[in-house]
Amino acid sequence: AALREGGARRAATVRTGSGSLTASELRIARLAADGRTNAEIAGLLHLARRTVETHLTSTYKKLGIRRRAELGQALAVD
Question: Which of 28, 43, 60, 75 is the most exposed place for a label (fewest CB within 10 A)?
């Protein structure tokens, strides 16, 4: 409380790069980068296909990529 009163702020959370991905996003991104289809990923993880699509969309935004083919490189860089 004293720190906040003095103007201290919490550490900023990472919002981009692989460090910003949730555990689910990272797991799905790795499977997609390995060549699995959305339907295969959904089946493996017992998720709806739309859930996989949502996680991948969020992952692309966080990694600053536009295509599935860029996933492998984007995950390796960070």
Answer: 43
Whole-structure pTM value: 0.77
Query: What count of residues does the chain have?
Result: 78
Judge whether residue 61 has pLDDT over 70: yes
> Residue 25 belongs to what domain range?
2-77
What CATH number does the domain containing 70 carry?
Answer: 1.10.10.10
The DSSP code for 20 is G
Domain count, the chain: 1
- Percent with pLDDT over 70 in the chain: 81
Give the mean model confidence (pLDDT) for residues 40-44. Answer: 98
